Structure prediction request, 538 residues.
Amino acid sequence: MQVFFQNLVGGLQMGSIYALIALGYTMVYGIVKLINFAHGDIMMVGGYAVYWFTTTALYEQMAVVNPALAIVLSVVFSIVFCMLLGVLMDKIAYTPLRNAPRISALITAIGISMALQISAQLIFGSSQLPFPQVIPKIKLEALTIGRKPMFLQEVLTFVISIALMILLQLFVKKTRAGKAMRAVSEDHAAARLMGINVNNTITMTFAIGCALAAVGAVFYAQKVIYIKPLLGSMPGLKAFVAAVLGGIGIIPGAVLGGFIIGIAETFMKYYASDYVDALVFGILILVLLFKPSGLLGKNTREKV
Amino acid sequence: MLNVSNLNVFYDAIHALKDVSFRVEQGEIVTLIGANGAGKTSTLHTISGLIRAKAGEIHFMDQPIHGMEAHKIMQMGLVQVPEGRRIFSQMTVLENLDMGAYARKDRANLPEEMDRVFQSFPRLKERRKQLAGTLSGGEQQMLAMGRAMMSRPKLLMLDEPSMGLSPILVQEIFSIIREVSKQGVTILLVEQNARMALSIADRAYVMETGSIVLEGSAKELLGNEEVKKAYLGS
Prediction:
């Protein structure tokens, strides 16, 4: 029983991270029908942004006065940096391809992915770097399951992720910009006839997705305690699987898929750690074979 | 109010609009009639900025709008209710109406505007919490029109509002168009149902294979032998 709960806690932690990243995939797909394969690398950049900020003189000065504020600021810096990168990526690479065949944008995405990985290698080198302690390693004795108490990191990852997902849902459902996003994802031309600036709405979607990826990056890098140029590729791919599993383009689907993948992976790691990746991609194959529209997706025929 | 001159539009090699020129004056109902594929929808899409013209000019309230982006054109008060309604089916009726008012700056007036739309379309009020995709065809057309009205258009362009509707609903939609016109909204109506369109319009243009072949007052055209033969089926 204790093993079960430990795996469940770990699974929820990984699941939160996958869900955060999967949201970026699914929102962008929902609005421009593009699988942004550079999304995982945006997450990697988020990790490096935190790392870089903690090496600055400004950070060192601040850390003396108020270490907690300094670390929060490094995360905020990373979020803002990733959002700007997302905006730049959309404006430079994807906006000119808005009316191009989808395959052109897909290939561009792979190109951006490589460009980001190589840039990180050039700037920071290809070896692993230690990720700073963003969340203090505190055992929460009050939250003890069996004999093992939970860590603050596990709880924070889950709580903050869930809070962000609720905020995102409120944004999409209630705000004017969020409704415009849904309108654009349904029908670009009709949205333009409503006076909605479709290009800017799409760019905003990229920015939100990238902000969530930056948060995901912090939690992920904190769990594995290092960063490297390829940091984003595996979690990025798995988050993509999560988005497809839940139903690509469907926001609650990304969350559901993220948690399923995270939990399945963590249990698999305990019982047969060699087969973790096989399990995740096996799930992808099964979804594509039996329910390509995903768990929450409606079956629609699509012309290819 | 709206001045279209020598519009030429191409889809790759196909010359879809050939030197199309016409005008709509303030307060008028002008209709553009013609068979399927004559270029009526292309004309509206070009005016709205969804398609770019290769040559020609469009002026709205004495300002050139050819080359402007679609959302900016709409924000000037030149609003289109597109063919096939194009409502947001995954959003509720209320949310669709909200989207119609998306570009409005005077957000304090929106509840009042919504009341006005609900007065014209009481059915929408009953169904305001429903997803728009679950509405019937007639209700969807009403929603598309109500959504456009939320933006307080100066000129409303309607593309085939009668399409796929029963004769009773067509009557209802057309009486609403007349009512909207009485409220001071100028109307450009594209229709295949020439008889209905001519019955409410002040002036009309007839399109054939990308060109305007005939124009005149709606009364004249209703009496015109060629029009009778080709479009009125008598």
Summary: The beta strands of chain A are 129-130, 139-145, 148-151, 226-227.
